[in-house]
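Re: the 194-residue chain
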Amino acid sequence: MSVIARASLVEYFKDQVEGALAQQQVPASGDTAHYVVQLLVDTLRHDSSSRAVALLDGRPLALRLADAMDERCPAPGRALRDVADAALLLGGYFAPHASDRALPPTYYRQVGGFAYGALGRESVVLGPIFRDLAERFSQYADALGEVGRRAEMQTPAGLVRALELWSRSRDRVTERLLVERGVVLPRRRRASVQ
């Protein structure tokens, strides 16, 4: 198992996120892109303050959102951010694995967009970032999905899963990533005109 220094991990995710945002023409602010990069880096940390803790809570995001909005919540800001960040990661970077839960992408986008919107109204310092994430949640999730698919395709099993996904969905992003990896895809058959 290789060890990656934190600085190189930040650089790796920065390149990947910025590339995906540019490829998908997402008009992201530098601060929001930085937040997303840090979210990915923090998710890989293995301690109790890691953003991965937000992903380990097995309760449905909608119930966690309701708890965060409850006036009795001891740390509503932290709870809302956990919900929003988990929705962005599950609806984006980890979308292929989250789809095993049989939840549509709109679920993550509605819950996450709402949570980031609430945070944007409450936070003075991070408000602009949270508002941007709320307004463009789908675009950021799609860009993170590209980053996640690109990372997954680095293994043979991940490449096979990407091929299976493409054969079912004909997803253009997956197709582009497969072609970038040197995979020759069959052309679509055209109906013959008689």
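The radius of gyration is 18 Å.
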